Amino acid sequence: MSGTVRKIPLRKCTGCNEMIPKKEMIRVILDPEGNIDLDDTGKRNGRGAYICKKRECFRKAVKSKGLEKSLKCSIPEEIYRNLEENYEWE
Q: Over the range 15-46, which residues count as b (16 or more CB within 10 Å of their CB) and which as e?
């Protein structure tokens, strides 16, 4: 045999509910201080929720409150607006 096969971690998109490799997704975190932000590294402390890099999935996640359910908190409208405007969606 030629080495070990590495498992690719999958996460569920809060918009389309598909399982997608973690590296191909955006992580939104609720940090210990209660701030909601994008986690570019995927390693920041806090509770994470994942979204595909498609604007359509982000809008579905907002509409279905998928992010709020995953992060277990309510998210102000201005945070959604900030996330949508400051990320380069596909």
A: beeeebeeeebbbbbbeeeeebeebeeeeeeb
Cα angle for residues 40, 46, 47 (degrees, 5° grid): 95
Taking residue 66's Cβ as centre, other Cβ atoms within 10 Å add up to 22
pLDDT tens per residue across span 3-20 = 788 899 999 999 999 999
| 44-65 per-position pLDDT tens digit | 999 999 999 999 998 999 999 9
